[in-house]
């Protein structure tokens, strides 16, 4: 069939084929550049989310650390906790220790507050029925006790 075409018709077909190849190449390179731009955009978004979450976790941890420092440095808290530890069966000592846990719990700030002794035994908790059986918490508590 191509042999039967005139020379001018062959030139037109060659021209159309070259245009088609050019359009295909242009489309391919446009697709590749758009694909790279999309990857960069997704990567930038993930980095931004990661940075934001890292800052949130750092702020959360700082708040918890500040709460712990408050409890350790407040003489009234230390006194009431020491009284409880010395006489845990005394209802007044228990009430005062639970009041400090309630203050630190801050309504809905924490779901529960727990007081442990130096060996890692749970002594008090709010709500009172809550028992800490979370292996991660218990292991972290053991690490803290060993560091002291």
Structural features, described:
The chain has helices at residues 7-73, 75-86, 91-105, 135-147; strands at residues 113-116, 122-126. Helices cover 72% and strands 6% of the residues. The protein is mainly alpha-helical and 148 residues long. Helix 2 packs across helix 3. The protein has a two-stranded antiparallel sheet. The relative contact order is 0.05. The model has no long low-confidence stretch (mean pLDDT 86).
Q: Which consecutive residue ranges, at least 5 long each, have pLDDT under 50?
A: none
Strand content: 5-15%
First and last CA, distance: 93 Å
The value of Rg in angstroms is: 35 Å
Q: Main beta sheet, described?
A: 2 strands, antiparallel
Number of helices: 4
How much is the average pLDDT?
A: 86
Q: Structural class of the helices, strands and pairings? A: mainly alpha
Identify the overall geometry: rod-shaped
- Write down how many β-strands occur, each being a DSSP E stretch of 2 or more residues: 2
Instruction: Spell the H/E element sequence.
Output: HHHEEH
How are the strands of the largest sheet arranged? 1-2
Q: Portion of residues in helices?
A: over 70%
């Amino acid at each position: 069939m191509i042999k039967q075409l005139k020379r001018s018709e062959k030139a037109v077909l060659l021209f159309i084929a070259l245009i088609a190849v050019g359009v295909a190449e242009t489309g391919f390179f446009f697709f590749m550049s758009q694909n790279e731009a999309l990857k960069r955009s997704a990567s930038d978004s993930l980095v931004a989310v990661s940075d934001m979450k890292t800052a949130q976790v750092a702020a959360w941890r700082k708040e918890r650390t500040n709460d712990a420092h408050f409890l350790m440095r407040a003489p009234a808290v230390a006194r009431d906790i020491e009284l409880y530890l010395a006489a845990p069966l005394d209802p007044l000592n228990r009430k005062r220790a639970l009041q400090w846990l309630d203050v630190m719990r801050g309504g809905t700030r924490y779901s529960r507050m727990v007081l442990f002794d130096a060996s890692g035994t749970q002594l008090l908790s709010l709500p009172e029925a809550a028992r800490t059986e979370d292996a991660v918490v218990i292991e972290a508590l053991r690490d803290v006790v060993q560091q002291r």
